[in-house]
Specification:
The complex is a heterotrimer. By secondary structure, chain A is mostly helical. In chain A, 83% of the residues lie in helices and 0% in strands. The chains are: A mainly alpha, B mainly alpha, C alpha/beta.
Chain lengths: 227, 231, 261
């Protein structure tokens, strides 16, 4: 292995690879947002919903947690989405990662909601709040705060899973790594470089989330304290 | 329409998948075993090992947990042959590279649960064992391990469930296991929905079966104070 | 044990520690602690928290290895660095912890039995019989199958006493056995300690239960800042007109708990 040649390959491909970083960032921001928007109502339904609605949520979670993401990517990109007139690989990636993340996020939020003392909801009802008000003003503000550690974990898992959309040629970090490696015959350097990029992204993301956790923290209120 | 699907699936998809199931099993079982073994060793080192060794183990775990499994597989299969030490290079076939990649990655996660299990044992437990005259071997065997295993089991079992799903990644480096076979069938028949939906059912069954087995095992080993957290 | 043999053995030395010292960093937590336990007596360690009581007890069976000092059991000096000898010694010195430390993965019976089968090498059947006898002695034979998570604090502590007694210890070290208990559960544990004292078990106990121990103790040992300050019979230390640290300390404690001296 020629060290200089390897370094050359990394430096020459830097702008191209950084373009891939932005694609990856776009994928995970989109997927986390979709997962959040779907995950919160799923969690609320699973805790407070009617039996049938609850069963449907359980079914959804079972499906998306039981099937490999890779299979879902193929199923949606080659099968379901073309039927709906969608043929963007990037969008397919966001949708599959987002739907999967919704299943996982809903379980994080559900755990947080269930860890709240029952007295919180009782007190809200005693003040004359409707169930919707009690959930949106009392339960969720507390539950979402408690969810941040679990959510950070979900972020780093999703970031790593996002590399899988390379199989449908979304030009994110790993897809570009493979093409540069093929062109330059430097797979070792490029694989290590890709690893470093993912490492840095994880680190930045976790820093941001920890900052968020600090910003929304209420003194004396934490998961440990509430159990 | 359902009948038509069933006919297609049973004639064109399932025979191929049934054969591929064996390939998937030959990926998952050794990966899980090597992963668990290496995970227990790594976890024990991270708790009881001497400091420099502990550092190395910690670095290994954060490296393998911090990078995508695809990158790791890509490294073992495509990049490893390029690393020449004194004219020698290790060339793994797709199957070997997959098992190596899965086992090393799985072990990194497993070691987290083992470590947690070992750390969850309060110091008083060990003190009480010593006060009764137990030697270190007896303490580990009769007090530390029975508790650590029970605490680590749910996490370790979950890891095996993940392994079943992530074994699909072997198809990216050309192994024709379940997902790879479904892909060939989808391409050959131009019926992707049927092919991928059928393979999804195979994974669902495998994962659900594994979860049941795990629950059964946990319940069998369950004692008051060590209950499975209800979900 | 009959009254006659108890009287005959009364002056026999069981456990003797001499000039035990222990420091954690610059913190000298145990200073030249010397005491002797004679057969059948109950010595009670009292004094403020952090005074070194717990350290002294844990040094006595090398759970915390002392920096210097000597220990004899039945006239034989125990050297902490000889592993095999140390494990054998610990089997003869029972220890009761403030927070029970029952093995969480074993039932009450399993807790009492495990050292009998694994350390003593008894058969499972003999060990079970012996363990049941000990559980019966602390009034918990009916709870033998329950796990620590299913027992109250007082019951846990009684099981831990049974676990120690099953090893036929020559002496029992009790480190604040009732401090972690709710007030209504203290009585059941003290009743067991009283039974043991009456039966002639040699014991040393750290405790804040002044009134209870004044009735049973052969000697109060007052510790403060790692050193033994005073030791004498409770009657002498607490006598009207006596001007002792012990008396001042006991008055303060009883003021807090509302008990008369």
């Amino acid at each position: 292995m020629n060290f200089e040649k390897a370094l050359r390959a990394i430096i020459d491909s830097l702008p191209y690879m950084l373009g891939g970083v932005w694609v990856t960032v776009g994928l995970i921001v989109g997927a986390l947002a979709l997962g959040f928007v779907l995950g919160v109502p799923l969690a609320v339904i699973q805790v407070y919903g009617r039996t049938l609605a609850r069963r449907l949520v359980v079914l959804y979670v079972w499906l998306f947690r039981g099937v490999p993401i890779l299979v879902l990517i193929f199923l949606f990109y080659f099968g379901i989405l073309p039927h709906l007139g969608l043929d963007s690989a990037f969008l397919a990636g966001v949708i599959v990662l987002g739907l999967t993340s919704a299943a996982y996020q809903s379980q994080i939020f559900r755990g947080a909601i269930q860890s709240l003392p029952a007295g919180q909801l009782k007190a809200a009802r005693a003040l004359g709040m409707t169930d919707t008000q009690a959930i949106s003003c009392i339960v969720l503000p507390q539950a979402l705060r408690l969810s941040i550690p679990g959510w950070s974990n979900e972020f780093s898992i999703l970031l790593k899973d996002s590399a899988l959309v390379m199989v449908i040629s979304v030009q994110e970090i790993m897809a570009r790594t493979r093409s540069v490696a093929g062109r330059t015959h430097e797979p070792v350097a490029m694989a290590l470089f890709a690893g470093v990029l993912f490492f840095i992204l994880t680190w930045i993301g976790l820093r941001l989330l920890r900052g968020l956790e600090r910003r929304v923290r209420i003194k004396g209120y934490s998961q440990e304290g509430s159990v | 329409m359902l009948e038509e699907y069933w006919l297609f699936a049973s004639e064109r998809v399932m025979p191929g998948l049934n054969a591929a199931l064996l390939v998937s099993a030959r990926l998952i079982v050794p990966s899980a075993l090597y992963g668990a073994l290496l995970g227990v060793i790594t976890g024990a080192i991270r708790v009881y090992g001497p400091k420099p060794v502990r550092r190395v183990a910690d670095a290994y775990v954060s490296l393998f947990r911090g990078t995508p499994l695809v990158v790791q597989l890509y490294f073992w299969y495509f990049a490893l042959p390029y690393i020449r030490v004194g004219g020698f290079a290790i060339v793994l076939d797709a199957m070997q590279a997959s098992i190596l990649g899965f086992a090393l990655c799985s072990a990194a996660y497993q070691s987290e649960y083992i470590r947690g299990g070992l750390l969850s044992i309060r110091s008083g437990q060990i003190k009480a064992a010593r006060a009764l005259g137990m030697n270190p071997m007896q303490t580990v065997l009769h007090v530390v391990l029975p508790q650590a295993v029970r605490r680590a089991l749910p996490g370790c079992g979950n890891e095996v469930v993940y392994l079943i799903k992530y074994s699909s990644l072997a198809s990216i480096i050309t192994v024709n296991e379940l997902t790879g076979t479904a892909r060939s069938i989808a391409k050959a028949t131009f019926r992707p929905i049927e092919a991928y939906a059928t393979v999804a059912v195979y994974y669902l069954l495998l994962v659900t079966l594994a979860v049941w087995l795990l629950r059964w095992l946990e319940d069998r080993m369950s004692i008051p104070g060590f209950e499975r957290p209800r979900d | 044990m009959s009254v006659a043999s108890q009287a005959k053995g009364q002056n026999q030395e069981i456990l003797r520690v001499e000039k035990l010292n222990k420091s954690f960093g610059t913190n000298h937590v145990l200073k030249d602690a010397t005491l002797t336990l004679r057969k059948g007596e109950l010595k009670v360690l009292i004094g403020p928290s952090g005074g070194g009581k717990s350290t002294l007890l844990q040094c006595m069976n090398f759970l915390i290895p002392p920096d210097s000092g000597r220990i004899w059991l039945d006239g034989v000096e125990i050297l902490g660095h000889k592993k095999r000898e140390l494990y054998a010694y610990r089997q003869q010195v029972g220890m009761i912890f403030q927070d029970f430390n029952l093995f969480d993965h074993l039932s009450a019976l399993g807790n009492v039995r495990i050292a009998l089968t694994r350390v003593r090498g008894m058969s499972r059947k003999d060990a079970t019989d012996r363990a049941m006898a000990e559980l019966d002695r602390v009034g918990l034979a009916a709870k033998a199958g329950l796990y620590p998570a299913q027992l109250s604090g007082g019951q846990k502590q009684r099981v831990s006493i049974a676990r120690a007694l099953a090893m036929d210890p020559k002496v029992l070290l009790l480190d604040e056995p009732t401090s972690a208990l709710d007030p209504e559960l203290i009585g059941e544990v003290l009743a067991v300690v009283k039974d043991l004292a009456t039966a002639g078990m040699t014991m040393i106990m750290a405790t804040h239960q002044i009134t209870f121990s004044a009735q049973l103790a052969s000697e109060f040992v007052f510790m403060e800042q790692g050193a033994i300050i005073e030791h004498d019979s409770p009657a002498a230390l607490l006598a009207p007109g006596a001007c002792t640290r012990t008396k001042a300390f006991c008055a303060k404690i009883n003021e807090l708990t509302g008990e008369p001296v």
